[in-house]
Design brief:
alpha/beta; 6 strands; single chain; binds 6-O-phosphono-beta-D-glucopyranose; DNA polymerase, domain 1; 10 helices; 2 domains; about 10% strand; Rossmann fold; six-stranded parallel β-sheet; binds magnesium ion
Amino acid sequence: MREFDAVIFDLDGVICYTDEYHYQAWKAMADSIGVYFDREINNRLRGVSRMASLEIVLERAERKFSQAEKEVLADQKNELYKKLLANMSPSELSDEVKSTLDELRGRGYLLAIGSSSKNAPFILRQIGLGDYFDAVSDGNNITHSKPDPEVFVKAAEMLSLPAERCLVVEDAVSGAEAAHRGGMQAACVGDASRAGAGDYNMKSVKDLLEIL
Ligand code: BG6
Ligand code: MG
């Protein structure tokens, strides 16, 4: 008998690469208020919600910002980010990721998204996967961001499956932790894989075809 019935994919850093767009948008926002920001700080924002990301960006600020000011700054970043996302196209979905998804579906696995991003539906449409997944759990249907397990627990619920039947695919250590706290195993790529955060630490997404 197989171990899993579904695979829940993180979006940013697993299905597509929006790091550079996040970087450019946060950098422009930080520059506009004179706060230092670099790629190393940007790496700390992986898997973290928009408002929690803003708190990390503002660690370097010389003054405190009110909640209302923070909302404005987060909106400013998001407007810039959406402009960059608007230029994304299906060419930003790699053949490797698409063929892995298709092969897993062909093997009978349910496929879902579990992303902290409120822009997830937009990004999925941009890369041609708008109607592809059996369930999309994202920043719009959660109140707690990774490493809280909520986004993955909701994805499993949408699929009507118990947690242990779902394998999570993540690039962020916070995402692997979220999977574990939700009672799921994690197969990791990127940062999380290098940190050994997964039950499976892969070189690339196509290694899933050996695991499943
Ligand atoms: C995650 C990204 O997928 O989404 C984070 O890894 C980002 O870097 C988070 O902050 C929230 O994204 P958004 O699109 O809702 O601002
Ligand atoms: Mg990610």
